[in-house]
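Thread title: Can someone regenerate the structure for this chain?

I was given the following input by a collaborator and told the matching structure tokens would be attached. They weren't. Posting the sequence so someone can regenerate them.
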Amino acid sequence: MSKTQIYHNPRCSKSRQTLALLTEHQEDIEIIEYLNNTPTPAELAKLIEQLGISPRALLRKTEAEYKELGLKNDDFTAQQLIDIMCQHPKLIERPIVVKNGKARLGRPPESVADIL
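Best answer:
Regenerated them for you:
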């Protein structure tokens, strides 16, 4: 059985709730604290593909960096947004759970249940 990965921020309540859900399901969990261990642009692009969303949909629009970097502007390409998220990982929505090549955003935490 493959490990279940969680891109986790321990300071985030949704991330902690999602991790607790994985623990309840007795998953073999690999915790990736993405603020300290930021995915590469290629890894982030793969996660976005597995989530089935656009890079813009993964942006945390409430972070100060979102406003500071002018990310509301639609002129950024998908690759530019991925690169920016890798340079400013606080902009990556969390938590992301990956299992068997499928990914889900743990907002709400229960939304990851269908891939477990």
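Strands lie at 4-8, 29-33, 96-99, 102-105.
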